[in-house]
Specification:
- Helices cover about 40% and strands about 15% of the residues.
- It is an alpha/beta fold.
- The strands form two sheets. The protein has an eight-stranded parallel beta barrel, surrounded by six helices.
- Helix 5 links the parallel strand 4 (about 90-95) and strand 5 (about 120-125).
- Helix 5 runs parallel beside helix 6 (about 125-135).
Length: about 290
């Protein structure tokens, strides 16, 4: 799969920099937006509500998730109900637990019954997915955000976890599974493979989507050109005088580079062979 249009998973942009959000809003394949207090603080946002309302004016027709930041359940509920009034395209992000690890299921249930579209966030275990599915209101749209990238950070393959999470949500057909905290473009295709409905991606990774399907040989050459350009721009120098003198004193080497042969020894490899493309043999295997 090489075309963005062929993806079944919806791409959301994750961030709080208004210029980047507007850049992504101009792309029709960006289907929604997410943010959180940490991203807002990093972007220098000082007034939470003013920023959110400005963002909703700029993006009136795609879903946007805003998060409560209270830790007390009653205050969470008041914040959630207030956020829900900001726009018809708002999802209210509720953390799966409070800071003490207490499950927020009763709050999720009450908000659903009140018609609030929630985005349950910071989920990392399948047990949490089960509990969230039970708490969601069957007739209200919701997003279930599993932090697959953080799962991967612990050395666990998130793809089977996300596939299982999707099956666990089958009892809530209006609930969408979201792959959160991606680390690279590959995660977009992994999320698609796992059956996720949404993946939320920071702009710096979304900008790399133009590389999808790129010819790798051409990409290799561009990388070499980058190294050379930057070395020249930095005016780097390596003293080679002593090496040349020593080489001349010992008779030097032929014009070929030294390469390991199929038997583990070394043989002359003519310049230009490495990276030549199809048909090159590596370790005795046809390319």
């Amino acid at each position: 799969m090489s075309r963005i249009e062929e993806l079944r998973v919806s791409l959301f942009s994750d961030g709080a920099d208004l210029a980047s959000i507007l850049e992504m809003y101009a792309k029709p394949w960006i289907r929604g937006f997410t943010t959180n207090p940490t991203l807002m603080r990093k972007a220098g946002v000082r007034d939470y509500e003013a920023f959110a309302r400005a963002l909703l004016r700029a993006v009136p027709d795609r879903p946007i998730s805003f998060e409560v930041f209270a830790d007390d359940e009653a205050e969470m509920e008041m914040q959630a109900l207030a956020i829900a009034t900001w726009g018809a395209n708002v999802n209210v992000k509720i953390p799966v637990t409070n800071r003490a690890g207490v499950f927020t299921g009763p709050l999720i249930r009450r908000l659903g019954e009140a018609g609030v579209s929630v985005n349950v966030t910071a989920i990392l275990t399948l047990e949490q997915v089960v509990h969230v599915a039970q708490a969601l209101a069957p007739g209200v749209r919701a997003i279930v955000s599993v932090f697959a990238g953080r799962i991967a950070d612990t050395g666990i393959d998130p793809v089977p976890v996300m596939a299982r999470a999707k099956r666990l949500l089958s009892t809530r057909p209006l609930a969408q599974l979201l792959w959160a905290s991606p680390r690279e473009v590959l995660n977009v295709f992994q999320a698609d493979e796992a059956g996720c409905d949404i993946i939320t991606v920071p702009p710096e990774i979304l900008r790399k989507m133009e590389l999808v399907g790129k010819d790798l040989a051409a990409y290799s050459r561009e990388t070499v050109e980058m190294f050379h350009r930057d070395a020249q721009a930095a005016a780097y120098r390596i003293g080679t005088g002593a090496t040349i003198a020593a080489r001349n004193a010992t008779g030097g080497m032929s014009s070929g580079a030294m390469g390991e042969d199929d038997l583990g020894g070394f043989a002359q490899v003519p310049h230009g062979v490495v990276g030549a493309g199809a048909g090159v043999r590596i370790d005795g295997q046809g390319a």
